[in-house]
Amino acid sequence: MELFFQFREKVLHYKKEGTGEVLVLIHGFLENLSMWDEMAVELSKTHQVIRVDLPGFGNSDCLDDSLSMSLYAECVNQLILELNIENFTLIGHSMGGYFGLELLKICPEKINHFILFHSTAKADSEEKKNDRTRAIKMVKDKQNVYLKTAIPFLFPEQFQSSCSGYIQKMIEESKNLHSSGIIAALKAMQNREDNQGFLKSQTSRKTYIAGTFDPLLNVAALREEALNNEANFIEIENAGHMSHFECSSETINTFLKLLL
After folding, report:
1. Which letter, b or e, does each residue of 42-71 get, where b requires 16 or more Cβ atoms within 10 Å of its Cβ?
2. How far is residue 206's CA from residue 258's CA, in Å, rounded to a whole number?
3. Cβ pair 123, 194 in contact under 8 A
4. In degrees, to the nearest 5, what angle opens at C-alpha 70 toward C-alphas 69 and 72?
5. Strands, E, within the chain: which ranges?
6. What one-character-per-residue DSSP string does 185-216 give?
7. What is the pLDDT of residues 59-88, one digit of tens each?
8. Most buried of 20, 119, 159, 169 (most Cβ within 10 A)?
9. pTM over 0.70
């Protein structure tokens, strides 16, 4: 079911499917809630699945250029309150994991299991911050050129042919995005805090899911990070950063086992 809610006089889009224990799915950068389509079909057979278009993405309005990870978290927390959700499992893909850490700060008592899906609790390195500054400039100057470059880069070379349909779909969908929404997200990622100490202190169940061939996040570094933060670690061997597209069946089975 496609639904909408209001946050700070803006309209945000979400979907709700299935019944049972609640599972909240948060998409990554340059994505929208449709990234979960294949996952939601299976997961909604056993859970109530709620997925949200974050501000500036999909069918949700932009907020403003001062958007932060904590503000993303506030908007989804409002939805959780409106739906009277008492507890849930949260899965955040990439940027969605960064947001999820801020939501965990707002309502730690409600999140039974927090899953960082191809994501990290670390802040951006200085090199990565510089990369985001260049990306912001490129979005301002040549948004479509940026999208045609940035989206394929999410997939390692060995998956670009088999995932070409998904890549083209993401590029076409992203052409409809307003530059202010993309830039706000880049700034929010660039300015986010290092949340490793916070994550380690949390007593709820915590899991990292990583892809062996992830071009953005080193799998060995993520394994060590999970260990340091007292979290479970799962490596999907036939995947990069986008395992929900690269090997959807294996990824669905991974989720189903985690949700038992």
Report:
1. bbbeebbbbbbbbbbbbebbbbeeebbbbb
2. 11
3. yes
4. 65
5. 2-7, 10-17, 21-26, 47-52, 88-93, 111-117, 205-211, 232-236
6. HHHHHHTPPP-HHHHHH--SEEEEEEETT-SS
7. 999 987 677 899 899 999 999 999 999 999
8. 119
9. yes
